Amino acid sequence: MKIPSGEATIGPFFPRRYVDAGANDLTQLDDRKADGEAIEIAGIVRQEDGTPLDNLVLEIWQADAKGIYRHPADPRHGEADPKFLGWGRAATDQEGRYSFRTIRPGAPQGRARHVNFMLMFSGLMRILKTTLYFPGERANEADPVLAAVPAARRALLVAREEAPGRYRFDLKLRGEHETPFFDD
Amino acid sequence: MARYVIPPRDERTQPTRIVPGYPQTPWRNPKAPLVRRPPTLSELTGPIEVAKRVQLLGGDIAGHGERQAIGQLMHLRLRVVDEDGTPVGGSVVEIWQANAAGRYIHPNDDDHAPVDANFYGAARLATDDTGLVELRTVKPGAYPVPTKDGWWRPPHIHFSVFGRVWLSRLVTQMYFPGEPLNGQDRILNAVPDAEARERLVARFVPPTGEPHNALVFEHEIVVRGRKATPSQP
Predict the structure, then answer these.
(1) Residues of A with Cβ-Cβ distance to B191 under 8 angstroms
(2) Is the ipTM of this complex over 0.90?
(3) Which candidate in B104, B124, B136, B175 is catalytic?
(4) How far is B45 from chain A (nearest CA, A)?
């Protein structure tokens, strides 16, 4: 039995070319449009004093429009949308802003529809993991991951719908309105 | 394909989140306790076809002939395995490092060390079936961190590894054996357990004549996850 390697910060010098053009657009694959409704998820990432963070790397992972993961561990993965990868990467700009274009995920079995987030940054010795939920979903109340979050903080994981299909999900790494992060 | 489970980690083998003398860490790491969550399919699946979204860049970043980078040429044999020791094939690995003078090609690096026009310092490739990637590069230099109290980073190489599932995603750094700066580096020493720190240091392979012009190092990265044990009937 081997012990997982120690994590380390991504540091300030993650090569810019690793945030490939189009890596934040999950709505197509190999020039073919994914099934389902295209949505936008955008927000600002801030540290404790409210300063927006530049050059922070975000990655997302989610199910396709039918709630299927493109991965062999999903018993339904044979039916996964071949035009949807489920993964994307973005980096924040000088105002701390990031954005993704993606497909509204279906609800996977036993879960509310959601999008997994990872944050990597200079000064983060470990990857920070959190999850976005959608507003107005009755299934949120029964979601086992959201239920693990103290009730008073759950609303911080629910994105705000600013316009139809346009979601705002701000992330605060520490302090007031701190985003709940998961330890796995 | 085998089902994988993700056992919790021993905290002593992982860095503390707030590091004394690393001035950004107290602003950016959560104050509230992290939330333990039940693993579901969402965390126990993950992107295994990242190369469809990002471009692989190859593992030879030292350049050749008149375009060869300045510095000590080195080969790195990097193996990615899981907690069972099983090779993780097909995993994208992103590698980045400073040049031989300790300078990165990045708008954030305003150090005075020289840029090498023949060295960008980034490789992105996928592991083969044995979990191996091979890197041909120059050994990175040490560099001072812009803090007031004399912290230098020892020579190191950064890795971002995807592994098999979302929770096996890993960002780590590799160090070189025998470097005098290793003992005082605040990032390496943020890992409390001495053996866990030692596992972040590459192994030097004594020269055998092949390759004749490069030092050889080997390193193993262990991503989270092991095969599920079938439950008793």
Answers:
(1) 6
(2) yes
(3) B104
(4) 6
Three-state SS for A89?
Answer: strand
The model's confidence at residue B229, banded by pLDDT at 50, 70 and 90, is low
Task: Check if B143 is active-site.
Answer: yes
Token pair in block for residue A158: 């629910």
Structure tokens at B149: 């109290």
Minimal CA separation from A135 to chain B, in Å? 19
Instruction: Evaluate if residue A39 carries a pLDDT over 60.
Output: yes
What digits encode the pLDDT tens for the residues A138-147? 999 999 999 9
Least CA distance to A16: which residue of chain B? B106
Contact between B190 and B24 (Cβ < 8 Å) = no
Rounded Cα distance, A30 and A11, in Å:
32
Query: How distant is the Cα of B212 from the closest Cα of chain A, in angstroms?
Result: 30
| Chain B CB contacts of A85 below 8 Å | 47, 49, 52-53
pLDDT tier at B232 (50, 70, 90 boundaries)?
Answer: low
The third-level CATH classification (topology) of the domain covering A16-172 is: Protocatechuate 3,4-Dioxygenase, subunit A (2.60.130)
- So where are chain A's domains? 16-172
pLDDT exceeds 80 at position B224: yes
Catalytic residue among B77, B79, B158, B226: B158
Measured CA to CA in angstroms, residue A121 lies from A32, A45, A60, A167, B11 at distances of 32, 11, 15, 23, 20
- The pLDDT, as a whole number, for residue A157 is 98
Give the model's pLDDT for residue B132: 98
Q: Annotated catalytic, B156? A: yes
**Beta strands in A1-155, from DSSP E residues, in sequence order:** 28-29, 32-33, 38-46, 57-61, 87-91, 97-103, 114-120, 128-133
Nearest CA in chain A to B85: A2
Candidates B75, B124, B136, B153; catalytic one: B153
pLDDT in tens, B97-131: 999 999 999 988 888 899 999 999 999 999 999 99
- Can you list the domains of chain B with their CATH numbers? 47-227 (2.60.130.10)
pTM: 0.96
Query: How much is the pLDDT for B230?
Result: 60
Beta carbons of B223 and A4 less than 8 angstroms apart: yes
Who among B22, B83, B84 is closest to A123 (CB)? B22
